[in-house]
Structure prediction request, 371 residues.
Amino acid sequence: MRFRSMKLLWHCSRYYLVPKASHMIWTSKRYCQRLANMVHLSVTPKTSLADSPLWICASGLAPSQPVTLFASLTDEKGVKFEARAFYRANSAGEVDVKQAPALGGHYQGPGPFPGVIDLFGGVGGLIEFRAGLLASKGFAVLALAYFGYDDLPQSITELDLEYFAEASTMLLEHPKVRGPGLGVIGVSKGGEIALAMATFLEQIVATVCINGPTRLHGTPLRFHDVYMPAAPYCPEKFLVTEMGILSNTYGAQDPEDESCVIPLEKAQGHILFVVGEADASLNSKLHAELAIARARKYGKNNCILLSYPGAGHLIESPGSPLCFSSFMRNCFRPVQWGGKLELHAKAQEHSWKEIQKFFELHLGQSGSSNL
Prediction:
């Protein structure tokens, strides 16, 4: 036999099957056994020489289920060799390694890939789902937390752009990342930071701002000898709806006031604004339109606007549920984000494709690998 052992590790719900010694551990052994009976792993031919390819196929999985294929061999001298590769089952619950693109693993694989930094907003912490989806499309993505995670500050009082510059340098220096430029995508506060990065960091050549303000809000910016004040929020303008939800649509200063405006005319790369016209947190369409007008005033035509009627503040990847309101860090009430169910869903489906096209156009074609 070519391999002494071949294990199939699969993900189910929020739990993970993990190898330990020669067996697997699960919180429910009975459920694990039932899953093992359902999943079939075939390796053809059963006996082969080292230079002959194998056909490995797994079936009986759930559609789109993440799967890890793991192979190990101990040679005559007792030296152990092992390898693993990550896949996602097709709609029939099957993985055929001749056809399915491997999403990662021990192998070197192709590359380098276009690099993207992914930023979320005022919720804080580390959020990885969008980065994971972009990575599955062939991008090398850094999901970057900037407060409320691990040893980072629990709140953000000043935007130190040096932190994001260091992250950009680190990503560009990775051997699997193709330079010389990077992309950045951000939503809400993350969109604001993405625009600041596009303005002050020359390595940022493609920026996606999803419902982000085009001027500094609440947190001033510092970068080397540059200091920009931020427009304060106006709590007296916050509204509480009949449902007890906090609406801060009018809680920011007038976006037409050019104090604290991010000077996007300095950006050397391309910028894609994605806005929801039913955004209940920010007049994001007006912010984007003013930024584009300002760029054109300075002779720049590097900005594109995608505006979606009925879409709310939290425009995410297709299939993500509409989040009309939710609790936010340090808020005493749930915050309203807005959006109409069907129109918001259509906006997510269309914008996700356009975001990928935008990055591929300005960062170069991405690609997946077949193992």
Observations:
- Confidence is low (pLDDT under 50) at residues 1-32.
- The two ends are 20 Å apart (CA to CA).
- Helices lie at 29-38, 129-136, 161-173, 189-200, 284-297, 341-363.
